[in-house]
Amino acid sequence: MKQTRYVTTPIYYVNDKPHVGHAYTSVAADVLARWWRLQGYEVFFLTGTDEHGQKVEKAARDAGMNPQAFTDQVSQHFRDLAGTLGLSNDDFIRTTEARHKAACCALWEELARRDEIYLGHYEGWYAVRDEAFYGPDELTERDGVKYAPSGAPVEWVREPSHFFRLSKWQDWLLVFYEENRYFIQPESRRNEVIAFIKSGLQDLSVSRTSFRWGVPVPGDPSHVMYVWLDALTNYITAAGYPDTKAEHWKFWPADVHFVGKDIVRFHAIYWPAFLKAAGLEPPKRVFAHGWWTIEGQKMSKSLGNVIDPVALVAEYGLDPLRYFLLREVPFGSDGDFSRKALIGRNNSELADALGNLANRTLSLIQRSCEGRLPDAALVRDTDKLFVDEVQTLPTEVRIRLESQEFQMALDAIMSAVRSANGYITVHAPWALKKTQPDRMLEVLRHLHDALRVFATVLQSFMPGTMAALLDQLGVPAGARDLAALATPLPGGTALPPPSPLFRKIEIEAA
Ligand code: MSP
Questions:
Q1: Is residue 125 part of a domain?
Q2: Structural domain span for residue 435
Q3: Is 12 touching ligand 1 by the criterion CB < 6 Å?
């Protein structure tokens, strides 16, 4: 069995500061990386910034800065955001780094050596905002301006260009998707990609001559590489390419590339074709998540509703935000971001359901058991349903997360938390102290065992708060992975006095 796992986020354009959409992909990738680590895999989690191309060059010009100084500055915001979001990324790649330019040149030379690239002339539509070429039948026209399906205006480009023989890989791609049934997720995106390919793939322009901000083409420096060829390569640069003999190459192929739905075409069509053409293995999965609207509206600068994730963390706390992003909508579907929804989830699920459960249980252990964990308890008939639900939870979460169903994983966890609340109400351990002290110990121990499972599986979603809960539960640092759940904590373990994990947030008056 492969013991390594590799997950990536898209590398973010440095034309502007990060927003909540960027935070979303990054948090999803972080949760998966942490989850794999809990299972004992050796994990490589990559994120970074996409710094070349016309769009970034223009943003630098608009800011009155030279592109390198500009990208240094904006890239730093993304690096800082990784810290703010508590990301556990193992590397942060910038496409302006020497290691990356070297990888791009090596990949280009390999493609050229295999006659996968030829010199020609491009004439057609280009959207700088998307850094993408579009066919005439994909465009719509308003007031004399043509627009791509994304809404980005397109311009007519006419220049000499190197082409990648993409059309040659059309049939291979269709077979590849057939043989790798879950390569593109969710299914709706897979169907979209297949339909697009069946409509006919054209060779792809992979170099530009009308601007300079890019990686010069080896042997033809009047061209710079198309920014998507440059950007996609980051995923192998970070795995050590072109040194495929090095230790670090063990992480390739990537297990999951997380992307937004707008950039599926690049990842699911161009990327495997480039790799295959260069004799390299394609990634195992491309998962495209949906887009967030903000309080019902498209997020855009002109509407002034762009949400800064740093401000959200400051206002609501990191873990409630991480939880909300993956809890609110099925991963793959679009969702609406509203403060009311975030506060609602925080108050009802985190503060009330989980937080109160922990606080009630741990306060009772403090008060009624002198702060010592009761011994491992017998599972009586009346405990069985609840204990079974808790014991099967890690497997259920694992199955959900293997297919990146974050929402379903959280749903299963929350349903077990609700069962625990039902269990504490029905068995009322606070009423047993005088009449049935031994039974009180059993009930509290079952609740403690359940909380340990909840905290263990939730660590990947809410690392900070769950570390605090595991501290309160008396779980030693070395016993917090999934395998450790098989070993019960020794009875008599001293537990610190509990303190609240989540705070309720007031819904401001509208
Ligand atoms: N630089 C390219 C990716 C290259 S990967 C080899 C790029 N960058 S981006 O900064 O424009 O977008 C990064 C990601 O943010 C994309 O996956 C995109 O889908 C996502 N989002 C942008 N706006 C979003 C929302 N409103 N909601 C959710 N995700 C959004 O594309």
A1: yes
A2: 339-509
A3: yes
Please check whether residues 277 and 383 belong to one and the same domain.
no
**Same domain membership, residue 44 and residue 185:** yes
Residue 300's pLDDT is what?
A: 84
Verify whether ligand 1 is closer than 6 Å to residue 260 (CB atom). yes
Domain count, the chain: 2
Confirm whether 122 is domain-assigned.
yes
* Angle CA 302–303–309, to nearest 5: 100
Cβ of 78 less than 6 Å from ligand 1: no
Give me the amino acid identity at 3: Q
122 shares its domain with 232: yes
Which residues of the chain, if any, have pLDDT below 50? 509-510
Give me the chain's average pLDDT, please: 96
pLDDT tens-digit series, residues 453-496: 999 999 999 999 999 999 999 999 999 999 999 999 999 999 99
Q: What pLDDT does residue 263 have? A: 97
Q: Report whether residue 355 contacts ligand 1, using a CB cutoff of 6 Å.
A: no
Is residue 50 lining ligand 1, measured as CB closer than 6 Å? yes
Q: How far apart are CA 450 and CA 138, in angstroms?
A: 54
Return the pLDDT at 1.
Answer: 56
Residue 494 is assigned to a structural domain of this protein: yes
pTM of this prediction? 0.97
Residues 267 and 350 in one domain: no
* Best residue among 25, 85, 257, 298 to mutate for probing ligand 1, ranked by most atoms within 8 Å of CB: 25
Answer yes or no: is the C-beta of 329 below 6 A from any ligand 1 atom: no
Judge if the beta carbon of residue 24 lies within 6 A of ligand 1. yes
Same domain, 281 and 389: no
DSSP character string of 43-103: EEEEEEEE--SHHHHHHHHHTTS-HHHHHHHHHHHHHHHHHHTT---SEEEETTSHHHHHH
Q: Looking at the structure, tell me whether residues 228 and 373 fall in a common domain.
A: no
Asked if residue 259 has its Cβ within 6 Å of ligand 1, the reply is: yes
Rounded distance from Cα 12 to ligand 1 centre (Å): 7
* Burial (Cβ within 10 Å: 0-12, 13-18, ≥19) of residue 196: middle
Q: How far apart are CA 479 and CA 378, in angstroms?
A: 22
Q: Residue 60's CB: how many other CB atoms inside 10 A? A: 22
Q: State the residue for tokens 């509206």.
A: 297
Ligand 1 centre to CA of 291 (Å) is: 9
Over the stretch 23-50, which tens digit does the pLDDT of each residue have? 999 999 999 999 999 999 999 999 999 9
Report the separation in Å between the CA atom of 68 and the middle of ligand 1, taken as the mean of its atom positions: 21
Per-residue pLDDT at 509: 45
Could you say which of 290, 311, 328 is where a domain stops?
290
User: Residue 260: what are its φ and ψ, rounded to 5°?
Assistant: -85, 165
Q: Identify whether residues 149 and 218 lie together within a single domain.
A: yes
Q: What is the CATH number of the domain that holds 192?
A: 3.40.50.620
Give kind and range of the element (H or E) at residue 31: helix 20-38
User: Is residue 262 within 6 Å of ligand 1 at its C-beta?
Assistant: yes
Q: Is residue 343 part of a domain?
A: yes
Of 290, 316, 347, which closes a domain? 290
pLDDT at site 507: 80
Cα 258 to middle of ligand 1, angstroms: 10
